Amino acid sequence: MDLFRKKNVRSLIDTSRRNKGLKRELGVWDLTLLGIGAIIGTGIFVLTGTGALKAGPGLMLSFVIAGLACAFSALAYAEFASTVPVSGSVYTYSYVTLGELVAWIIGWDLVLEYLLAVSAVSSGWSGYFQSLLGGFGLKLPDALTAAPGAVPGKTTLFNLPAFLIVMLITLLLSRGIKESKRVNNVMVLIKVGVVLLFILIGVFYVKPTNWQPFAPFGTQGIFTAAAVVFSAYLGFDAVSAAAEEARDPARTLPRGLLYSLGICTLLYMVVSAIMTGIIPYQQIRGHEDHPVSLALQIAGQNWFAAFIDLGAIVGMTTVMLVILYAQTRVAFAMSRDGLLPKWFSRVHEKYRTPYSVTWLLGIVAGLIGALVPITQIAELVNIGTLFAFIMVSVSVIILRKTQPDLPRGFRCPAVPFVPAASIVLCAFLMSQLLWITWAAFLIWLTIGLIVYFTYSRKHSALNASKAH
Hints:
By secondary structure, the protein is mainly α. The protein is 69% helix and 0% strand. The protein has one domain (25-467): Amino acid/polyamine transporter I (Up-down Bundle).
């Protein structure tokens, strides 16, 4: 039964308050922009094209389906974030409801999800950045433009832009949450401005006939696209990782989660509607990496297409910033619980950040993005996130039964039906992913179990307290 030993919610909160730890700097506005910063990036600038080829104009409904899966999960996250306002996100939530072994599996899953997400986005960022340099007549040596073997016919050795942007973000995060939030807030406002400008300009070039037929591949196409574009929503859960750095977390965290998700869902639907209204979805084939700017080119607005590239660069920068931030906080929480070495949870005396682990994870993510050709990475990130969403929904149902009187700043409505809807939707989307994605995911979890039984179980803080 030691495998399922649980942390006490009240003592967990008291311990986090007593510890001289992270600074509380984030309000509702900051948390909302943190969520938008994590969500809007490659999804709106790239995945809209991939999804349109699978669903046609029905992509609008695909975003609704994926958004609903996230919305139900967000309500569960909001309840936990207000009830257990400490670092660790779903890892911590699982620890207090399902026990240590499940919490470890979730934490290990999040390490993979966040690490590969940062690496994959850094590769995309590099492509847009090099495209922007090309507009000024600048070009990097081929050897420094991509990972080894990533570009057929070219000798590439190291993706230098991908590595450098992750190092710059790591430096920013290591210096403090106040500095990081300021940069994030400015960049989020810029990229949302670019998206709104696209909407204002593009709406005048929409041809409703391009929306016919609305679902050329039927409902299956819409569902398949929903599984693909689900990754466009990745990152909103990172807001819950900011629990120990949020002011009045019981009030601000639920609002930040739900506001950011709602705003992004609306923007995704409108952008996909305008894009498929300007350009027949069939013409996107071969241009999946820049469908939004393609729509503007077809509309004769070439001058604005460059702004889309800039918006994509800024958008992906904030995605990496927030996801790497969330990853360091999950590792911080796991280390504080003894499941990872204590070195991971050391807080810098001056900057009040988990300085060492921030640099460790940043360097690893940067090297993966620079040296490994990332293929099918979106699906691998998706399966980890969907698994985490299922676990947080299960945890809400269990905690309502086991500790019904626990103070909750926000209550998920219609429990257990809303969490159950989240579980069903997420499980359905997981079933749409390739078998090789499942195989890689299970291999990673197996490695995690080996680490747990050889190190983490013996060094757990709960194991040490029992010994005393």
